[in-house]
Amino acid sequence: MEIVGIFVILAFILIVIFLTPINPGGVRQSDSPPNPPTSPQQRIEELEAQAERLRASGRKIIAQRDEWKGRALSAEAKLTEAAIKGNNEHGNDGADRYAALKRYLAKQFHPDNAPGPGIEKIVRSEIFKEIWSEIDRLDHQS
Hints:
Elements: H1 2-19, H2 40-88, H3 93-109, H4 119-141
């Protein structure tokens, strides 16, 4: 039984050895690198190009962050103005406006309503968390 097992293993090894193609340099193709080697200068140029692409992406992300920060500050100012206006109103009209503003903010800044994937959803999520925590604080005060 052991001899049969050894024979099967030996046969398998021989099949693998003989079926693996050999390139003209005498090295089995499975041992050679998938891409031809590049010169160090070419590799440096590739890395520099990649670094520049990453820098450009970083600048774009920072610009988007600043844009969203401006939008958040604008929305916060509108919210404060609406809250002040709502406090000056008489009767239940202020509560109705507060509820309408709350729905508007939820619709505008909730991450599920973001039109695209990526950084926009993350930024919306952060803005929503900040605004909503303040709304919750105001709800618990009254």
